[in-house]
């Protein structure tokens, strides 16, 4: 069954990179998993570029896996630097809430909310806004090196073009990593 899932992904052109295809195959062969994709709430609806990610979640669900739709209520407060030439506009809490509400409507059209593998909505605002900054730096900051972070495209391109990158945006990838840790610890999410 797993081989069909991976094959379907490849046939549809959904695969660009895979860190460890052998381990992914083993993981999918051994059990049904929970997986997530995150969507920041920067606009009242998603753009067409998000459709591929939604279809990936749908395909996994059709093969019996449980999709988690992670709404980035917390990360939206920071702003994803990827593909941007300047800092995103800081949105108010009211704007983020309104956008979150609009975005949620999209998923019922593509994902099933019935059965043992019904999709789940989570919002990273729930845990990110409760972080104690000093404890966060001490517990998690030590696992990230500036050297490595500077090699990521979202950072490297902005610096190569001599475009400013705020400290706020620079932290975005750490918050993404923390999201996965939270999802793994509290929701048994593995992908």
From TrEMBL:
Gene Ontology BP, a term: tyrosyl-tRNA aminoacylation
Superkingdom of the organism of origin: Bacteria
Alphabetical list of Pfam families matching this protein: tRNA-synt_1b
What is the top EC class of this enzyme, as a single word? ligase
Report a single Gene Ontology molecular function. tyrosine-tRNA ligase activity
- What's the protein name? Tyrosine--tRNA ligase
Could you tell me the keywords of this UniProt record? Aminoacyl-tRNA synthetase, ATP-binding, Ligase, Nucleotide-binding, Protein biosynthesis
Q: Which reaction does it catalyse?
A: tRNA(Tyr) + L-tyrosine + ATP = L-tyrosyl-tRNA(Tyr) + AMP + diphosphate + H(+)
| Family note | Belongs to the class-I aminoacyl-tRNA synthetase family.
* InterPro entries per UniProt: aa-tRNA-synth_Ic, Rossmann-like_a/b/a_fold, Tyr-tRNA-ligase, Tyr-tRNA-ligase_bac-type
Query: What taxonomic ancestry is recorded?
Result: Bacteria, Pseudomonadati, Pseudomonadota, Alphaproteobacteria, Candidatus Pelagibacterales
Q: What are the annotated GO cellular component locations?
A: cytosol
Q: SUPFAM superfamilies annotated for this entry?
A: Nucleotidylyl transferase
């Amino acid at each position: 069954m797993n081989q069909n899932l991976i094959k379907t992904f490849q046939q549809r052109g959904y695969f660009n990179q895979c860190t460890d295809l052998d381990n992914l195959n083993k993981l999918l062969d051994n059990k049904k998993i929970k997986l997530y994709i995150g969507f920041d709430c920067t606009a009242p609806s998603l753009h067409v570029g998000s459709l591929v990610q939604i279809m990936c979640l749908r395909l996994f669900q059709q093969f019996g896996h449980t999709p988690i739709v992670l709404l980035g209520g917390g990360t939206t407060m920071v702003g994803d630097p990827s593909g941007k030439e300047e800092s995103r506009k800081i949105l108010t809490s009211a704007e983020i809430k309104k956008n979150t509400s609009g975005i949620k409507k999209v998923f019922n059209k593509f994902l099933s909310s019935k059965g043992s593998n019904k999709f789940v909505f989570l919002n990273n605002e729930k845990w990110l806004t409760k972080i104690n900054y000093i404890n966060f730096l001490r517990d998690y900051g030590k696992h990230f090196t500036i050297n490595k972070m500077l090699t990521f495209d979202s950072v490297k391109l902005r610096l190569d073009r001599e475009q400013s990158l705020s400290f706020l945006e620079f932290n975005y990838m750490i918050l993404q990593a923390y999201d996965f840790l939270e999802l793994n610890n509290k929701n048994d999410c593995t992908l």
